[in-house]
Amino acid sequence: MTARRVHILCAFLFTAVIAVNAGGFALSEALRRLGPVPLGESVTYSPLVVDRDGKLLRPFTTADGYWRLPARPEEVDRRFLSMLVAYEDKRFYSHHGIDPVAMVRAAWQMLSRGHIVSGGSTLTMQVARLLEPRPDRTFADKAAEMIRAVQIENRLSKEQILGLYLALAPYGGNLEGTRAASLAYFGKEPKRLSTAEAAMLVALPQAPESRRPDRAPAAAKAARNRVLRLLAGKGVLHPDQAEAATLEAAPQGRKPFPILAAHVAERLVRQDLVRQVQAGRSEPNPVVTTTIARFLQEQLENLARERATALGGGVSVAIVAVDNASGEVRAHVGGVGYFDKARAGQMDLAESSRSPGSTLKPFIYGLAFEDGLAHPETLVDDRPARFGVYKPENFDDAFQGTVTMRRALQQSLNVPAVMLLNSIGPNRLIARMKNAGAEPSLPPDAVPGLAVGLGGAGVKLTDLATLYLALARDGEALPLIWRPQDRSIGAQPHRLFEKAAAWQVGNVLIGAPPPENAVGGKIAYKTGTSYGYRDAWAVGFDGANTVAVWVGRPDGAPVSDLVGRKAAAPILFDAFQRIGEKRVPLKPPPSGVVFARTSELPPALQRFRPGALPEIAAAGSGDAPLVISFPPDGARVEVSGGQPDAALALKAMGGAPPFTWLADGLPIVIGEERREAVWDKPGKGFARLSVIDARGHTASVQIRLD
Predict the structure, then answer these.
(1) pLDDT confidence bin for 7, thresholds 50/70/90
(2) Which residues form the Glycosyl transferase family domain (predicted)?
C-alpha cells in the first residue's frame, strides 16, 4: 500500500472516530464554525391544493421553479422504504448518523482499487448534504457532513430524517423528492408502487441527471435493474420477483402533474399568498384544503370534456356542484382543457358574467308567490303584449293563450314572466338577488328594466348556483363554501324567499319536461338560452345537491342551435347521475302552502290581472289601500308541515306601518313595522285574520287552517 493511500485511510478513520464520539476540542471548534444545525425548517415546498379528504388536486412549483412535494414515510410504499434502506443504508435504524463499518469498507475499497466503489454515506449524511449543499466534495466537506449527520440524529427522529430524504432527494431536472418523481414518471402517488417502480426511485438519486428517464431511459432502466439484482442478492427480494421486475417497461418521459379543479386551486393559492404577504409571513409547506370531492371532480371534468368535444366549434363547458346542506362546493369545472388555447382553458368560465337567458324566471315567480300576487294554479294569459316600447316574444314565436302559472314557468313562456316582473319591479328582483349573494351586472349607468327577466343582466354560473341553492334550502341563501375553515367564518344566511314561496317554485320546476332520454320528476331544474345562441344554461337541484351548467364559446361567439334544453340540460342530468347518490326527494311542503285547484282559489288568485292588483307602496307612504295579500280570503292553508311548532306567514300590502294583526279579534302581532309578520302556532280550524295600520285602516280575510 502506498504512503498516500495509508494517509487517506487514516484521515477517514480519524474523522469517523471524532464524529462518532462527538467530543473533544477539535469537534467543538468545528461545531462553532458550522453554525446552527439545519433541520429543514427553511425548506420551501410546492404549494399543494387538496380535496376534502386530503387527496391531491393540483401542485404548483416553488418560487425557484422546482417540484418539491413533502412526503411522510407513511405516505410512501413500505416496500420502497425497505428497498431504499437495504440499498443505501442497511444500518439506518441502528446507527447515530454515521455508519463506521460502511465508512471503513468504503475507504478500504477506494484504497485497494484506486477509485471510489461506494461512498459510505448514510441516509442521514445524504440529508445533511441536501440541506447544506457542498459542491467541492473535499474531505473537509465529507467531515462536515458527518458532523451534521450526528447533530441531525440528535435532534430528529428516524422517521423525520427519512421524511426529509423523501422530500429532497434529487430525481433529475426540477424534480425533488419521491412523491414528485412518482407523479412525474409513473403518474401515481408513491403509496402503491410496483417492485420495478420502487427500484427505479431507489436508483435515480445516485445520478439523477445521467439517469433521467425522460432523457436517458436506457440508463435509467439499467440502473433500476442493477438495484433489483443487488437486492435479490441480499435476500431483500425473491430472485424470481426481481427478474420479473426487470422485464417491466420503464418510463421514457414525464407525465403531467395532476391539475384537477385548476381554476379553484389557482384562485385559492393566490388568495393565501396575498394573506401571507399582508400578514408579513410565509408558509414553508403551504397546503390548501378545499371542499372539492376529487372523485366527483374527475367525473365532471370528464363529462365536460366529452360534451364539449361532441359539440365542437371551440365550445366549452363549465359545471358547479354544491352540497345543499352546507353550501360546500363539491366540484368546480371552470372550462375544458386548462392548456387548450382554442377554448381559453385558463379562463374560469364559471366566474364569467354572461346573459342568463330564462334562468332568472323562477325568482320572478317566487316573488309573485311570496307577495300573494299569484299561485302556481293561477291563470295567466300568454298572448302578445307591449310594455312601453318593449314587446317580448316566446322562444318559438308562438303563444299558448291562457295557461296556469305552473305551466307558464315549466314551458318558460316569456310574456307571463314579464307581466309578473312588471308588477313586482325589476329593481326588487335585482335587490333580492344581491341580498342572496349574487352579483348581477348591468351596463354602466343602466337601470334594471323588464328585459332583466329574460337575460338582460350579466350573471355568473356561481351566482346561479348560489340562487338555486337558496331554492333548495327553503329560500335560505348561503354563500358558497370553498374551504372547510370557511364554515366557521361564513356570512350569516339571508332569505331569498319565504319557505312557502321557495317550495312552490321547486314544486313547479320538478315538473318541467326532462331532456330527451332522461327521467323526469326527480330534479327541479330550469334551462336558459341567451340572445343569439351564445350561452346555454341548465341549473337544478334535488334534496341533496345543486348543479349549475353553462355551455358556450369563451369568446361569446354565437353557436348554431346552442339551446339550453338541448345542449345544457342533458349535461345537468348526466352530472346528477355521476354524483353517484340515489336521488334525494325535495323537502315536504312547509306550513303556509295553499293547495288548491284554480277553481278552488280565492277569486283574486284565480286569474292574474295586473291592473286589478294594488301596488306595494313605499315604506311609510300609506298611499295604497290596505289589503291582506297572504293568506288570501277563502284560502285553505296547510300549517302543520309535519312540525310541532308550525307558523303562518302573514303579508299586508299598502297601508301605513306599524301594523297590528289579530286572529278572531285577539292580537297576535303588535307594532310590526314591516308588511310581513309571523303567526306562531296558529292551530287548526277556521279563523278570521285582520290587520290594522297606523291610520286605523283595517283589512280582513276568512281562512281555514289544516
Answers:
(1) very low
(2) 65-229
* Global confidence as pTM: 0.82
Read off the C-alpha cell for 336: 375544458
Contact 342, 553 (CB under 8 A): no
Provide the 10 A C-beta neighbour count for residue 458: 16
- In order of 42, 392, 469, 471, the CA distances from 438 in angstroms are 42, 25, 11, 13
Give catalytic residue positions. Answer: 88, 358
* CATH topology agreement for domains 330-341+348-579 and 612-705: no
Q: What pLDDT is attached to residue 107?
A: 58
Least confident of 77-91, 115-129, 356-370, 572-586: 115-129
Between the alpha carbon of residue 37 and those of residues 41, 152, 166, 395, the distances in Å are 10, 7, 19, 74
Q: Across 505-561, where does the E strand assignment appear?
A: 524-529, 535-541, 545-552
User: What separation in angstroms does the CA of 328 have from each of 286, 432, 530, 546?
Assistant: 22, 22, 28, 10
pLDDT band, residue 185 (cuts 50/70/90): very high
Task: Indicate the pLDDT class of residue 653, thresholds 50, 70 and 90.
Answer: confident
**Angle (deg, nearest 10), helices 195-203 and 217-233:** 110
pLDDT, tens digit, 9 for 90 and up, residues 669-698? 888 888 888 888 788 888 888 888 888 788
Strand, coil or helix: 243: helix
Question: How far apart, in whole angstroms, are the C-alpha atoms of residue 530 and residue 562?
Answer: 9
For residue 428, the tally of other CB atoms under 10 A from its CB is 15
Percentage of residues of the chain with pLDDT beyond 70: 89
Give the containing element (helix H, strand E) for 698. strand 698-705
Distance CA 448, CA 441 (A): 10
| Residue type present at position 623 | D
612-705 folds as: Immunoglobulin-like (2.60.40)
Task: Pick left, alpha or beta for residue 517 (phi over 0 → left; psi -120 to 50 → alpha; otherwise beta).
Answer: left
Q: How far is CA 436 from CA 283, 291, 354, 494, 548, in A?
A: 34, 21, 19, 6, 16
Fold entry, domain 330-341+348-579: Beta-lactamase (3.40.710)
Cα–Cα distance, 316 to 20 (Å, whole number):
64
Dihedral pair phi/psi, residue 527, rounded to 5°: -110, 170
Rounded Cα distance between 127 and 84, Å, is 14
Domain ranges of the chain: 330-341+348-579, 612-705
pLDDT digits (tens, 9 = 90+) for 290-301: 999 999 999 999
CA dist., res. 473 & res. 476, Å (int): 5
